[in-house]
Amino acid sequence: MKEKKIKESKEEKEEKKEKGLFARKQVPPFRFENGVAINVKDMDLFYGDFKALKKINMAMPEKKITAMIGPSGCGKSTLLKSLNRMNDLVEGCRVEGEITIGGENIYEKTADLARLRKNVGMVFQRPNPFAMSVYDNIAYGPRTFGIKKKSVLDEIVERSLRNAAMWEELKDRLGKSALGLSGGQQQRLCIARALAVEPQILLMDEPTSALDPISTGKIEELCEELRDKITIVIVTHNMQQAARISDKTAFFLLGEMVEMGDTDQVFSAPQDKRTEDYITGRFG
């Protein structure tokens, strides 16, 4: 009887260990101070000799939605990808200045990329589910970080789908291919997949641009439900979307951040004439 208790205790400890594996010891979270999640200071970004971003300075608040708006080619997506160093994959790309998350410069040579990618998730313009089951799509990230126990994975999959408001839709289709879902469902699945590793920040690059109005509405509702749990930074061409869901809005033009402020203020009383001209449709 005593041996059984010891065995159960070990199993419980192992499960507890796996649940906390994302864990704070192996992959610690960033510690935000003064309500700021991301701080960009005097940042320039170059593709070879071309300067794509020029002296960007902005602070993105913790557990809020920050929207970046502006015409095509103005640098919004370039900046977004820089926030978890996805531009490292682009030949000839270099960053000058600082991007700090929780006070830590993510472009330092000593920066922990595994920690960065775990805590700063990314959702792309077009849904990109893996060619595997719904369950395996969501379990992929946790497995990468060492979670093996099925009961723990089951819990993570259900929690992630609930957080993405998809559990009722997909609970009977977990073994089916994710490629059989509709475009809107695939995009929300990609959000659930990103949430499975418990990121502190979620970057979204025009996540609704390829979706129908109903699916777009569901993604926006999801963002509003998540805003109290994680920090969201979203790039959008849809100014109405930015006005509906974001707390802060930044306007970009030709590689510069022209203006950033509370969303209501930026849309109702912009400080820069270029912002006003863009918002009122004079260009863009």
Helix and strand composition category:
alpha/beta
| Fraction of residues in H or I helices | 25-40%
Q: CATH first level: which class?
A: Alpha Beta
How many strand units?
10
Find the CATH superfamily: P-loop containing nucleotide triphosphate hydrolases
Tally of distinct domains: 1
Question: Unreliable stretches, pLDDT < 50, 5 or more residues?
Answer: none
Instruction: Indicate the CATH architecture.
Output: 3-Layer(aba) Sandwich
Number of helices: 11
Question: Overall pLDDT, averaged?
Answer: 91
Strand content bin: 15-25%
Largest sheet, described in full? 6 strands, mixed
Listing every helix as H and every strand as E from the N terminus to the C terminus, the arrangement reads HEEEHEEHEHHHHEHEHEEHH
How far do the termini sit from each other? 74 Å
Placed side by side, the strands forming the largest sheet appear as 6-7-8-3-9-10
Rg (CA only): 20 Å
How is the CATH topology named? Rossmann fold
Morphology = globular
